[in-house]
Amino acid sequence: MISWLMLTQAIVVAVLGGAVSIAGLARVRMNDLVLAASALTLVTLVVQVVASIVAPLAGAGPTGDLLEYWVYLVSALLIPPAATVWAFADKGRWGVLVVGVGLLAVAVMVYRMHQIWFVQVA
C-alpha cells in the first residue's frame, strides 16, 4: 500500500465532505457538484481496492488485521452510493447533508485503514 496515497485520499475526501456538508447546511439542493464529489470519492476507493490487492502480492502487506482492513474498505465503498441514493430520494438540503456526512465518514474510515495498514501491529 502507498502511504501518501491513503493520506492524500483521506484529506481530499474530508475536504469534499466538508464542502458538501456546508452546502447542505446552506440549503443547497442536490446538484451535479454534489454528485461529482460522491463519484470522485467512489473512484478513489476503487483505486484503493486495486492497490490493496496488488500490495500484498508485491510483499507489502498490512501490519494490522487484514480482515479488519477489508471490512473498513468494503463498508467505505458502500457509503457513497447509499448516500447518493438517499440524496436523490430527498432532493432537499437534507439529502445533500447526508452525502456530506457520508463523505466525512469515508475520510475517517480511510484514515483508520491507513492506521491498520501501516501503524497497528497485530
Task: Compile the SSE list and pairings.
Elements: H1 3-25, H2 32-57, H3 66-89, H4 93-119
What report would you give on this structure?
It is a single chain. The protein has one domain. The protein contains four helices and no strands. The model has no long low-confidence stretch (mean pLDDT 93). The chain is 82% helix and 0% strand. Helix 2 packs antiparallel against helix 3 and helix 3 packs antiparallel against helix 4. With 122 residues, the protein is mainly α.
Mean pLDDT: 93
Proportion of residues in extended strands: under 5%
Spans of at least 5 consecutive residues whose pLDDT stays below 50 are none
Order of helices and strands: HHHH
**Percent of residues in helices:** over 70%
How many structural domains in the coordinates?
1
Structure class: mainly alpha
- Number of helical regions: 4
The first-to-last residue Cα distance is 17 Å
Instruction: Give the radius of gyration.
Output: 15 Å
The number of distinct β-strands equals 0
Query: What is the 3D shape?
Result: elongated
